[in-house]
Amino acid sequence: MHSRLFPRFALSALVLFAVSVLPARAGVQNRINAPVSSSNRVAVQHTISPRALRAQDLGSAPADRKLESITLHFNMTAAQQADLNQLLIDQQNPSSPSYHQWLTPAQFGARFGLSSSDLSKVTSWLTSKGLTIASVAPSSNYVSVSGTVGQVEQAFGVSMHAMSENGQQHIANVTDPQLPAAIANIVTGITGLHDFKLKSRARVATPRYTSSVTGSHYIAPGDFYTIYDVNQLISGNSINGSGISIAIVGQTDISTAAVSAFRSASGLSSNLPTIVKATGYVAGIVSADVDEAQLDVEWSGAVAPNATILFVTVGSSPTASVMDALNYAISNNLAPIVSISYGNCESGWGQSELNSINQELQQANAQGITVVGPSGDSGATDCDIDPPADFGLAVDFPASSPFATSAGGSMFNEGSATGTTSYWNSNSSSSTSNAGSALSYIPETVWNESNSTGFGAGGGGVSAYFSKPAWQVGTGVPSDSSRDVPDVSFNAASGHDGYLFCSVATSAASLTPCTNGFRDSSSNLDVVGGTSVAAPTLAGVFALLEQQLGGGTANRIGNANPMIYGLANSTYYNNVFHDITSGNNNSTCQQGTTNCPSGGSIGYNAAPGYDLATGWGSLDVYNFVNKWKLVTPTGSGVATGSAISSTTVTTSAATCSNSSGSLALTIAVANASGTSLTAPTGTVQILVDNVALTGTNTATLSGGSATFTVNTSTLSSGGHTFGAVYLGDGNYAASKGSLYADIVSSSQKDFALTPCTAPSSTASGSSASGITFTITPANGFTGTVNLTANVDNSVAASYTFSPATVTISSGAVTSTLVLTADQSSTSGTFLNAQNSHPASHIAPWYIAGSGASLACMMLLVLPRRRRWGALLALLLSVAAISASGCGGSSSSSSSSGSGGTTPSTTFAARGTYTVNVTAISGSLVHTSTVTFTVQ
């Protein structure tokens, strides 16, 4: 396991020197023209982590706690954003003089960053508040500082609290930071104010490569070469990544000895990664992340065996994260290809952080950098960890960004008629054949190994935040006006068939399990799956492509998607892509929750052409590399907007139990660029459940707003998402907003559940006052209605409905819900049903770490993407059994006397929770929400 160090300048004088030696920016205007006064402050909004809102608040954080990397990300003027948007189009347009004219970070800063004068004013103010400058971006668009909690609170006017999440201690801001107005006006967002890191979720898989011990098969590098047609490049044309660099970003140190063992077992030359220490680095291996890092480094280097692998890391820093490593790799232009195997569902990010990262991805593309990310491992329900899904359809960011390529997941499907003998040798080949045993391409289906204990399927679906880029066109691409993912896929299964890799066995970095080929001294193997394998392998493919194109800056790819979709729309489609047409990425879902009115499962099916389960399918790498220059990119020459816009959808009508047959929407499109511009103009397109309405489906803006009435009489009973996509104008880029509403049929027998929302609060260990719900029949409905409740994240609480089943014969009836902030043998039904469905959502899932200390970590939020098989059932059960302990709760017990039972009570942690109330009668489902505060 490895270490990290914290690179930062200790003296403000050094910072000012660093600013002074930046290239002159004649084209960048000074934007701080007023004195920087701490007495006139403005809030930088939407910086509070969603995880902090759900965690147990323990009060003020220790004032002496060190924060290694707090970053102020600077926005662009409207003119700069317009210029960048056009540049990104022109760089992918073969007819433009700017085609493939990539910028250096200094050139990017000279055109899109802050002026030297403004940077000096910002850094001077920061150091005057006692903060230490950790780094100034070479691209002049962010500054990172370090300091104690006390210094940060004083400088930013922010309140920092200690938190507990599933038994782990954290710190986070509970208010938005307040900056001097002159600085706040140029800041897009601030990151690093909390230590809720993305978590790597891993599952050790049951091996299936051709083994001399068991006869089963895994995927070794030689198998990947055969199945995806890489051999012709590596052996015949010497296209092996030579001269090309790939940056892998992580948040741990790694074992280079394990990398060496992997390459030796794979029959690859010794080509060890270079370690790059990003801002905030602190030495140390993190057990929850090291397997992810080893996997990413080893498999990107396996697909492109002669490429230079740069592992960019913050080590074991308590507060710096993989996103700091991503920023460092981009702003320092370290490599033409960057792979990140972490992410979270879009709504799991704070809006400020999501916007800041997306801006970094734009910079990456302008510099010619191709960014690859995983589509997620929870199928179509990326916000959920385990079944049943409660949060509806969702996709994973940063892979959902239009400026990244999303790598989805497939699995092999040999078919029952021929078994596996037609595709595999009986034994692995020698190391000279890179340990492979596959004989040919193997047909693929959608990766979906989800079961009752955990999700395990390729992510895919429709972005809730990003509108459809001009290049995303072709057979099967939905007409949803939204960014769709994934773009392409590779095998991501863990059980059939997982990838071999080598990791560290203990905290000693010199130890590795690969002591006898891929096996350890006990003949065990490390096997992994998930879309976090698809991402680094795709990065390796891009390295092969760049070498084939000639290498060097001029042959960087930048955003690969216009060309990927160009190939998919060309006559070479069947040569380049393995179209995957079977399977789905469905997730079982909780009846009555978002997108799941009737229970069952939700997701997307594979289909000919593009689909929301595997994108265009997997690649024939040889043809992909050789056909690349024979097509033109899609979306070339299409104008986009300039400044950032934001779209919101509201209604004055009820958002639950609406039985009027129509829903009047108000759409507001605002200037979100932080610059002075006129209101957005143009049109918005109306969607229902991410599908454009048939017939009239647009409205024209006036003063930045428009109205539209949706006919709901033809919609099914239950919840629906009403969306609006702003199509952009000469000043503004497109944006997307949505509204969720529960519809009661205006013509069929149905019922309504009210109120739509309600508050409830109580002290931990006590019961709250009852909430009365009314169930009202519509159109002659009669029958029984069952009432249930569940919570959106882990809390030791219970509930009772009185009565839990109501019968409607004519008029409305009522039932009273009582929430109790503990769980005991005398409680009603558990909100969390922790013995069957631990609910620590908004983060995909299974956590990494060589099978160690999984219990509490299973319930943590957000990691990405790989997966382990053999120990999964055991680990999940451990996590479920330990859920109350991981929740930071306390318990007490009392004896009922000799021979009696010993009831146990677990008290709910302080915090605010969303309770979903569901009323079900047959296929009819209606929902309401309760905001439950435990004091």
Automatic annotation (TrEMBL):
Q: Transferase as a keyword?
A: no
Gene3D superfamilies linked to this entry: Immunoglobulins, Peptidase S8/S53 domain
Question: Listed GO molecular functions?
Answer: metal ion binding; serine-type endopeptidase activity; tripeptidyl-peptidase activity
Q: Which UniProt keywords apply?
A: Calcium, Hydrolase, Membrane, Metal-binding, Protease, Serine protease, Signal, Transmembrane, Transmembrane helix, Zymogen
Record GO biological process:
proteolysis
Signal peptide range in chain numbering: 1-26
Q: What parts of the sequence cross the membrane?
A: 843-861, 868-885
Q: Does the keyword Metal-binding apply?
A: yes
Q: Which cofactor does it need?
A: Ca(2+)
Pfam families in UniProt:
Pro-kuma_activ
Q: Which PANTHER family match?
A: PROTEASE S8 TRIPEPTIDYL PEPTIDASE I CLN2, TRIPEPTIDYL-PEPTIDASE 1
Q: Which CDD domains match?
A: Peptidases_S53, Pro-peptidase_S53
Instruction: Tell me the protein's name.
Output: Ig-like domain-containing protein
By sequence similarity, the record places it as follows:
Belongs to the peptidase S8 family.
Which intervals hold domain Peptidase S53?
218-631
Q: Which InterPro entries does this entry report, sorted A to Z?
A: Ig-like_fold, Peptidase_S8/S53_dom_sf, S53_propep, Sedolisin_dom, Tripeptidyl-peptidase_I
